[in-house]
Amino acid sequence: MTINIKEICEKDRNTVLHPFTQLKDFASGKLGDPTIVETGKGIRIQDAFGNHLIDGFAGLYCVNVGYGRTEVAEAISRQAYRLAYYHSYAAHTTDQLAILSDRLVKMAPGKMSKVFYGMSGSDANETQAKLVWYYNNLRGKPTKKKIISRERGYHGCSVVSGSMTGMSFYHDHMDLPLPHIVHTGAPHHYWGANANETEREFAARRAAELDQLIEELGPDNVGAFIAEPVLGTGGITPPPEGYWEAIQAVLKKHDVLLIADEVITGFGRTGSMFGSQHYGIEPDLITVAKGLTSAYFPLSASIVGEKVYNVLEEGADRVGAFSHGYTYSGHPIGAAAANAVLDIVEKEDLPGNAKEVGAYFQKQLKEKFAQLPIVGEVRGVGLMGAIEFVGDREGKKRFDPALKVGARISKAARDRGLIARAMPHGDILGFAPPLVTTKDEVDEIVAIAESAVKSVMDELI
Ligand code: PLP
Q1: Phi/psi of residue 40, nearest 5 degrees
Q2: Which residue's CA is the closest to the ligand 1 atom numbered 1?
Q3: Is 228 in the pocket of ligand 1 (CB under 6 A)?
Q4: Ligand 1 site, residue 149, Cβ cutoff 6 A
Q5: Strands, sheet with 112-118, edge to edge from the N-terminal-most edge strand
Q6: Model confidence, pTM
Q7: pLDDT surpasses 70 at 185
Q8: 1 pLDDT higher than 70
Q9: Of 62, 159, 263, 287, which is best to mutate to test ligand 1, by the most ligand atoms within 8 angstroms of its C-beta?
Q10: Is 394 exposed, middle or buried, given 0-12, 13-18 or 19+ CB atoms closer than 10 A?
C-alpha cells in the first residue's frame, strides 16, 4: 500500500490524542512528525520512509513472539471468517475461549480456578479490585477493602489501576489516587537501602514496613496487596533477595490477598513462564495481558484462584449473577490469537530462550556499561534490563532532571536504529526485546546502545 506521508501526518496531528505525549509540542510541530510505523518482522519494525529500527522494547514489552508471525495472523483471520464475535455473558462461549481458559488455569502458578477476560492490563486490574471487594463482601467483611500497592509500581491508567500505580505524575491533575488505595515503599535496593544494608536486610525492612502499615490501617480494612514480580515501568527492578518470601509471610499473617500483576512478566520474560514461578510467589489472583496475545489482539485476563472463587460460588445463591463484564469479555478473535501465541511460546520454548539469551544479555549489559562513570546500576532478569545513569556515582546522586540524560540517550539510540525506552523514574534506559531475540541480535542491541551512551557521555563529562 502506498500512503501519502504528509497527509497521514497532518491527519494524525489534527485528530489523534496521543497517550504520553506533550500535547502542545506535538500540535505545534516542535516534537516533529509522528513516526508512522508500517511493517514489522522478527525484532524489527519499519517506518513509512523505509527505515528499519530494532525494537529493543517489543512495542511496550508486549510483542513477545516478534513481529510478522503469520501463524497468529492466520489464526485471527480464520476466526474472523468463522465467527468474528459472540459475547460470553449468560454462559455463552466459543471453543477457542474454553480451550484458552483451560490452558491458562493449568499453566498459571498457584491454585487457579477461573479466568475473567478484558481488553487491557488496566481493566484487568480494575476487575481484580472489584473481585477483592466482592469477595470480602460475600465473606461478611465489608470493611476489608483497602488495596496496598508500591511506590513505583505500574498497574495501568484507568481509575482504580491508575490509583494503584505508584508514580505521582500518573496521578497529578487527574484527581488520583482514590482513597481506597495506599502505597508502600519500592523494593529497589540501589536507591532505597540504608548505608551497608544488605539486600536481605533491606527486603526484611520493606516487609516490616508493610506489616506496620497494615497494622496502622487495621487488618480488617486491608483486602489486598498488588505487585509486579519485577517492578517494570518504575525502572525494571528485580526484587532484592528474600523480598517475596518476607512479603508473603506478612500478607498471610493479616489475611490479605496477593494479586500478582504479571502483565509484563507473564509468558516467559523473566526466563520462567511466570514471574511468580521465578520468585516463589503464590498469588491468589493473577493479572495477564500483553504477552497473552503478544499484542496481536487486545486481550487481558484476571485469573482467579480457588480460594477467592470458592467464596464467589458459595455466595451466588444469596447475591445472584456475577454482575461484571464487558461486551468484549472473552472475544473469540482474542482467544484464537492467544491460543496461536501460546502455541508458539510453548513450541519454541520462549521462556527457555529468555533464560539463555537473557543471561547472555545481562552479562553483556554488565560488561559494557557497569563501569562507565555515568552509570549507577545495571540490572535486570531474563530479557528485561535497565541501565540507570547518575551524575555522581560515589555520592549516588542523580543528574539534574533538566539535563534529560535518559531521554537524550534513548534518542541517540533511536538515531542509530535502536528503540530502547527512557523510563519515567530517573535517568534509566530500559530494554525488553521480543522473547525470540537471538544472541547475535543481543550483540547488535548492545553495540548500538554502547555507541549511544558514549555519545551522550562525551557531551556530559
Ligand atoms: N500492569 C503492568 C505491570 C503493566 O506494565 C501495564 C502496562 O504497561 C499495565 C498493567 C497496564 O496495561 P495496559 O496498558 O494494557 O492497560
Answers
A1: -150, 145
A2: 155
A3: yes
A4: no
A5: 112-118, 300-305, 285-288, 257-261, 222-227, 146-150, 181-184
A6: 0.98
A7: yes
A8: no
A9: 263
A10: exposed
| Cβ(289) – ligand 1 distance below 6 Å | yes
- Which atom, in ligand 1's list, is nearest to the CA of 122? 16
Ligand 1 pocket test, pick from 61, 62, 152, 154 with the greatest ligand atom count within 8 Å of Cβ, gives 154
pLDDT tens-digit series, residues 241-293? 999 999 999 999 999 999 999 999 999 999 999 999 999 999 999 999 999 99
Query: pLDDT (tens digit, 9 = 90+) per residue, 14-53?
Result: 999 999 999 999 999 999 999 999 999 999 999 999 999 9
233 lines ligand 1 (CB under 6 A): yes
Adjacent-strand bridge partners of 147 = 181, 224
H or E element, residue 275:
helix 275-279
Contact criterion met (CB below 8 Å) for 423 and 55: no
Query: If you measure from the C-alpha of residue 130 to the centroid of ligand 1, how many angstroms do you get, rounded to a whole number?
Result: 17
Q: Which of 254, 256, 176 is nearest to 215 (CA)?
A: 254
